[in-house]
From TrEMBL:
Residues 122-221 form the OmpR/PhoB-type domain. Keywords: DNA-binding, Transcription, Transcription regulation. InterPro entries: CheY-like_superfamily, OmpR/PhoB-type_DNA-bd, Sig_transdc_resp-reg_C-effctor, Sig_transdc_resp-reg_receiver, WalR-like, WH-like_DNA-bd_sf. PANTHER family: REGULATOR OF RPOS (PTHR48111), TRANSCRIPTIONAL REGULATORY PROTEIN TCTD (PTHR48111:SF67). This is Response regulator transcription factor. It comes from Mesorhizobium liriopis. It comes from the Bacteria. Residues 1-115 form the Response regulatory domain. It holds the Pfam family Trans_reg_C. Residues 122-221 bind DNA. Gene3D superfamilies: 6.10.250.690, Winged helix-like DNA-binding domain superfamily/Winged helix DNA-binding domain (1.10.10.10).
Length: 221
């Protein structure tokens, strides 16, 4: 999930719409709302945050204040095209500064690059004969690509990132759809995972997703 912080509702709604078209969950906050949420949100919710975009907001929304709660990359969206402003933003602790206007896909590419550098993430997770990529590519089974719809692919990526650990339906939903998407029912996760399990079973010959009622899901090989 991508979090956008900006005082202008029109801006946060605009980014939310653009990310949604790319199949990426997002949500928007004003400065005060964001500060309250970061300080009180459960750790499980914060783990679902892929990156934080800071636009026109109060000066007290600083990366240094976020590090104790989340290691998600922080990117400043700058409307002032000046060296002084760019340097000021970097000095505040942001991981990158992007000058507007900017295409959503460029933002996503920058987020992926920062996460690779900061967390030294592998470009893929090898789980038995299955290779699950972190850059949006379809997974491969024994070297052969397995095309998946975006939601199913994102769920598989999330399960692979937590391989061996059980995650709840709520955690999967938050990671794929965002924390505040009231237009989608949480039970949609069950439908996506059911379709994903069927496809994996057909290719692998067994079901790699272990599910326990009320406890959640776990990817095992």
């Amino acid at each position: 999930m991508i979090v956008i912080v900006d005082e202008r509702e029109l801006v946060t709604e605009g980014y939310h719409s653009m990310f949604d078209r790319e199949g990426v969950a997002s949500t928007g906050f004003r400065s005060a709302e964001f500060g309250d949420w970061v300080s009180s949100a459960p750790e499980e919710d914060l783990k679902s945050v892929r990156a934080i975009l800071i636009g026109d907001c109060r000066d007290d929304v600083l990366p240094a204040k976020l590090r104790d709660r989340t290691g998600a990359p922080v990117i400043a969206l700058s409307e002032q095209h000046s060296l002084e402003n760019t340097l000021r933003l970097f000095e505040s602790g942001v991981d990158d500064v992007v000058r507007k206007p900017v295409h959503i896909r460029e933002i996503l590419a920058r987020i992926s690059a920062i996460r690779r550098r900061a967390q030294e993430e592998a470009r893929f997770a090898q789980i038995g004969p299955m290779r699950v990529f972190t850059d949006g590519r379809d997974p491969e089974i024994e070297g052969v690509p397995m095309p998946l719809p975006r939601r199913e692919r994102r769920i598989l990526e999330y399960l692979a990132a937590n391989c061996g650990r059980r995650v709840t339906k709520t955690q999967v939903f938050n990671a794929i759809y965002g924390l505040f998407d009231d237009e989608v029912e949480e039970n949609v996760v069950e439908s996506h995972i059911s379709k994903l399990r069927k496809k994996l079973r057909e290719r692998l010959g067994f079901d790699p997703i272990d599910s326990k009622r009320f406890l959640g899901y776990r990817l095992v090989m």
